[in-house]
Structures are given as structure tokens and as C-alpha cells.
Amino acid sequence: MATQTLDRTTTDATREIISYDPATGAEVGRAPIASAAEVARAVARAREAQAAWGALSFRARGRVVLRARELVLAELEEIAKLIAREAGKPVAEAIAMELVPTLDLMQFFARRTQRLLRPEKIDIGQYGLMGRSSRIVYRPLGVVGIISPWNFPWAIPVGEVVMALMAGNGVVLKPSELTPLVGLEIADVFKRAGVPEGLFSVVTGDGATGAALVEASVDKIMFTGSVATGKRVGVAAAERLMPCVLELGGKDPMLVLEDADVEAAARAAVWGAFANSGQACASVERCYVHERIAPGFSARVVELTQQLKQDAGTHAGADIGAMSSERQLQIVAAHVEDAVAHGARVLTGGQRTAGALAKGWFYEPTVLANVNHAMTIMREETFGPVLPLMTFKTEDEAIRLANDSIFGLTASVWTRDTGRGKALAEQIEAGTVMVNEVLYTHGIAQTPWGGMKQSGLGRTHGRAGLLELVAAQHIHVNRITLLPDLWWFNYTARAAALFRGLARRFTTGSVWPTSLLLPQMLRRWRERR
Ligand code: NAD
Fold it and tell me: In 3D, which of 229, 324, 346 has the Cα closest to residue 279?
């Protein structure tokens, strides 16, 4: 590991990324760094192929996606192992959190996109009585650029690729520089499934390659990553007046009310905070517990945490693998050190893992108490295996604490009274709020995914996510062309009087007051003939 940079990624003169296993430091493989010219060529190829793809039926597109799904299923173990080696997570978790959700998403969008994008008739009220009709049709955008992070190197890009292809678009994907081989595997699967030549390509590379994709003439950028990079992407997209979806960071709160099922909540907190070594945008990063149940809850959380097995992701039985990069491990260590320096108590963990795992980027699953909102650990995204616990006395206080954040991705409320849970959920500023659940709804293809506040703009997944990948076009038809419209030229005195009448009566939206204008309308029509 001595020769590696902070990100385990070397971008030397050979224009190559070297991908390392974060658990061992062993090289996993290499991938090219695509230049801006190569990115532009990929976009041009996708644009050329898109015209024919966009003209295909949903069923024909779905057949290709379902073939890709069969390949993923047949190669499940190999793909999960590659994810584990590049990202550090346990193979079992790669299957549960990356492959199962995408297999489900693939069948859902392959079969349902046609229905989800069915043309819609719009009720245009009284205009309909004049022989007019309106409907919305959904057209492909053209070429969609996808820029993805390393924490779910398979599930995040595959979901977006499938949805963009099903919507009829060409796609160019730039995977994270920490997980380029998973990106290339995605390209390979879709190629073998029969995606037309050039329609979908993967350009591996670093931030400059991502920036080149934003600068290439794509029609939309789907970006997932940090707030800092998301802002840069947003600015670059705005310069081109190009729309973008930004799926950014989180600092997701979990509220455990006094009537919660303590055992379930404790287990959920431990999984929600430590799955993927805490490197999920929707990880539980702040846990607020009612003071009455706090002692029992925190004791159980500590007990469960100490039972977790930390090991290389490729070793059977591992619960928690390595963190994906040294940089991330350093952020986690700095947040914990800062919290401890300001009075936090470490209930378990609190340091880089020693012993046989010391050669990899492992951090002990950590539970902290005695934290407050002045500490970095409660304000900035930690993105690591740390669960800070804080107590509250009242519901109002819990909501105030949950909303005291620049982020708003997901949140959870734990209570035996689901009615109470739903009422509280609606007071929390987050794109998704779960009652008696944590973290997992990115895995439900049907539900929208996206944040409020600095957690991002726009949605992925569900119908809302699909609508981000099409242009909604309004088609308006006038079936009665016999008579000129009342509001066309010339603006005679009679016309002006009618317009005043329209302002008073037609705009009520009711037919009865409008019908009182009929004599005036007839006079106006006669005048226009
Ligand atoms: P990052 O912002 O460092 O990188 C994300 C991607 O952007 C990478 O592919 C990177 O190469 C590329 N990139 C870097 N600079 C760029 C530029 N100037 N222009 C265009 N692309 C550029 O994020 P990361 O460290 O890979 O991912 C972790 C972050 O992602 C966390 O903040 C996490 O919360 C967030 N995340 C959010 C979601 C969500 O759905 N909201 C999901 C997963 C991760």
C-alpha cells in the first residue's frame, strides 16, 4: 500500500486507473482514463444510435433489458465478488443491496415503462366545450449522461441506465474512479444482451472525465455524488442550460419514540448505520432516542454492534468490510476525534481496526453518546461506520433536531403507533421518511428517490424518476376551425366588452356564468365573419 495515493487510484502518464482491493491493497485491475475527445465520441455514437432505439417499441427495448437481467442472474456470484473486491463490501451484502434491487428494477421497468409513460389526456375545463383537447406525450430526451459514485457502484448506475434506455435514450456512463471495473462490467453485460452498437457506453476516468461528459452535448446529466461536486456539475449544466438531476449527500436522522419496539429499532439502527461500512447516502447518521428508553436502547445497540464480524468482503461471514478509500477512512477518524475532543463518549469502537485487518482501510463500527449539534459528527456527512446517539424529551424537540441539518435525503420514525409515525413523518424535511424502517427504499424500483435541501434536485426511480428521463410534450388540438377564435384580431369595442365579460365570468371556471356571455359571443362571431 505504500505506493498508493490517498484514493488508492493512480492516474499516471499512462492514462490508467489502477483499482485496488481496499481490504488488502492488492491490485484488482486497470481501466483507461477517457479523454474529453473520447467522451465526445461516445456521446456522438450514442446520439446516432438513439434515433433507431427511440423508435422501437417498449416491448422490444424491454426484451434487451430482460436479456441483460438473465446475464446478471447467471453471473450473480462473479459480479458480487467483483463489487466486493473493488468497493470492499461483503459479497452477501453486494447481492442483497446491489444485485437483488437491480434485478427487480430491471423486470419492473422492462415490463411497466409503457404503462408509466402512457400518453395522458388533460382536462382543460371550458376550453374542451370549444372543441379543443390536450394531451401529454412522453418523448425520449436523446442522450443521457450518468455520473455515479463508488458506494453502490452497481445498483446506482444500473438502475439509471435501465430507466434511461427504457425511456428510449442513448446513454453514456462515467463510473467512479474507485470502481471502474464494475463500470466496465455493466457495459459488458448490456453489450452481450444486445444493446445496439454505440447506444450505451461506459467511459472510465476521474473527475475530469466526468466534467467532460457534462461539457459534451448530452441532453441531461444524472449525477450522484457529493454536494461539492454536485454544485460544480449544477453550475456547468446551467451554463449550457442543460437539465440535471443531482442525488447528493445525507445526514439521515432516526427518531426512536418512547413507544417504539426497542429491539427492532436497535437492530435497525445497527444495520442502518453500519451496512456498507456506513457508506450509504441514506445511512443512519444521527439517532435520537426518547430519554426514557435511551439506556436500554443504547445498551442493546452496543451489544449488537460488538457481535458484528468485520473482515474482507470476500470472506464468508463478514458483516462489515473495508471502507472504500483511505480518504473516507480519514474523514471518519477526524469526525470521531473531533466529537471526542468536544466531550463525546465512545461506547464501542472509535478507531481504525487493528490486528490482521490493519493493512486494509477498516474502521471499527463505532457508537457514540454525549454528542450535540455543535459537533461535526452531527452536522457534516460522515459516511462511515459511526452511530451517534442523542436523547430527546418531546416530539417537538425530536422534529427540531431532525430538521436541524442542511441535508434532507431520508429519515425514519420508530413507534408502535403508525398513525403517530405518519403524522411526524410529514413534519420531517426529507425526500423519504420511513416509519419503522431504515435505509432500504432505494431498493424499491416503484418509489421515488431523491432529497430535499442540499441532498439534491430531482428524482430517480419510480414514475417520478422515469419522468426525469423524457421530455413531456403537450399536444393541443382544435377540432372546430370553422369560426375564428373570439380573442383574435381585431380588438373592436365589442371585443373589449366581451373580454371584460370573460374576465368576470369565464374565469370562474363554471359553465353557468360563462353561458350568460353567449349573446355577446354570438355578436362577436357575427362581427368576425
Ligand atoms: P464525488 O462527488 O466525489 O464523485 C462522484 C462522481 O463524480 C465520480 O464519478 C467522480 O469521478 C465524478 N466527478 C468528480 N468531479 C467531477 C466534476 N467536476 N464534474 C463531473 N463529475 C465529477 O462523490 P463520491 O465520493 O464518489 O460519492 C460519495 C457521495 O455520494 C456521498 O456524499 C454520498 O452521500 C453521495 N451519494 C448520494 C446518493 C443519493 O442517491 N443521494 C447515492 C450514493 C451516494
Answer: 324
Task: Tell me whether residue 244 is one of the annotated catalytic residues.
Answer: no
Residue tagged active-site, from 98, 185, 247, 364: 247
Contact by Cβ (8 Å): 136, 473: yes
Q: Cβ distance 269 to 235 under 8 Å?
A: no
> pLDDT, tens digit, for every residue of 398-454?
999 999 999 999 999 999 999 999 999 999 999 999 999 999 999 999 999 999 999
Domain with CATH 3.40.605.10 in the chain: 34-248+463-472
Query: Which residues belong to CATH 3.40.309.10 in the chain?
Result: 252-445
Q: Which numbered atom of ligand 1 lies nearest the CA of 455?
A: 41
Q: How far apart, in Å, are the Cα atoms of 320 and each of 20, 21, 81, 214, 362? A: 18, 15, 15, 35, 9
Gap between the Cα atoms of 42 and 201, Å rounded: 7
Please tell me the residue having the least CA distance from ligand 1 atom 35.
225
Q: What distance lies between CA 264 and its chain's CA centroid?
A: 26
Beta-bridge mates of residue 427 = none
Nearest to 352 by CA among 341, 342, 343, 360: 360
* d(CA 254, ligand 1 centre) in Å: 24
pLDDT, one tens digit per residue, over 221-243 is 999 999 999 999 999 999 999 99
**Overall size of the chain counted in residues:** 529
DSSP state letters, 248-266: ----EEEEE-TTS-HHHHH
- Report how far ligand 1's centroid is from the alpha carbon of 226 (Å): 5
Look at the block and give the residue holding cell 438531476.
Answer: 245
CATH of domain 34-248+463-472: 3.40.605.10
Residue 7 has pLDDT above 70, yes or no: no
- 281 annotated active-site: yes
Q: Measured between alpha carbons, how far is 306 from 367 in angstroms, rounded to an integer?
A: 10
CATH annotation of 252-445: 3.40.309.10
User: pTM, whole model, 2 decimals?
Assistant: 0.96
Choice from 154, 179, 226 to test ligand 1 binding pocket (greatest atom count within 8 A of CB): 226
**Nearest alpha carbon to residue 291 among 406, 402, 398, 410:** 398
In one letter, which amino acid is 490?
N
Instruction: Output the nine-digit C-alpha cell for 408.
Output: 434532507
